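Hi support team,

I'm opening this ticket because the web form for multi-chain structure prediction keeps timing out on my end. I have pasted the exact lines I submitted so you can reproduce it. The total is 292 residues across two entries, so I didn't expect it to be a heavy job. Is there a limit I'm missing, or should I split the entries? Thanks in advance, R.K.
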Amino acid sequence: MSTANDAHGHEHPKNELSHYAKRIYAIRDLLVEKGIISEKDIQEQIEYQEARSPANGAKLVARAWVDPEFKARFIADPKAACAEMGIDATAINEFVVLENTEKLRHMIVCTLCSCYPRPILGRPPDWYKSFNYRKRSVVDPRSVMREFGLNLSHDVEVRVHDSTADIRYLVLPLRPLGTEGWSEAELAKLVTRDSMIGVMDALPAIRQ
Amino acid sequence: MKVKFEDRPGHIRTPWYIRGKTGWVERIYGDFLNPESLAFGRDGLPKKTLYLVAFYQSDVWEKPQAPKDKVLVDIYEHWLDPAA
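Hello R.K., no limit was hit. The queue was backed up. Here is the completed structure from your submission:
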């Protein structure tokens, strides 16, 4: 975004701002003026938010695929398993991993707002926050999955988790067929963000 | 369990579509500060037990696409009654 310096030392976007954006900048300026937070705090928080990405989730899933004992720990105590992998999930109140099987697929939504396992997946995609997804995922999840390229047969059960409260969910997708002997790093490339939200499976076994 | 059908303002974490519907407890998550209190700057006490409640699509929607698929919702105790 293009920005311009203004009188009080930091940058504001040059284009016309929405009501909410103006309010955010006004609140930020007030907090800084009153010394409640500093410009450095804001910058550090932006960097922290940006540093969290689906790569964290992909690392966890790939490890769970190759190491059954880790997988058991990841399901029993996800936060401890994250700590083991050097991933900080302490910001999550309660973290639950949902394991997909051949006969069961999980899908995550927050119909009330945009609850999302941010430490593990970073910021949610815009479609996850859209009214369209939030409405349709609980009514007709199979057609949403079809739009993401996943066609499930009728003998596969679908469970949609509406994360309304203190729990943050992550889907542990199925390991793709034909990936025997692949390294963790190679496997992690098959683990897409959307497969950990559960709207699709992990990518097929084509080396990325 | 049956979800209470209540219509009141506030920071309600029970989605509208599930109010009045009947499901079963799949898991008990433990006790959490009450978000309906926290959202208004209060202390969130007493803590409320949070349940994972499962519903068949056929018990939630009139014309479900896949009746035996499930929707699972995290619901605090004060929104639940025993099913009749």
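A quick check on our side: Chain A has a mean pLDDT of 92. Let us know if the file doesn't open in your viewer.
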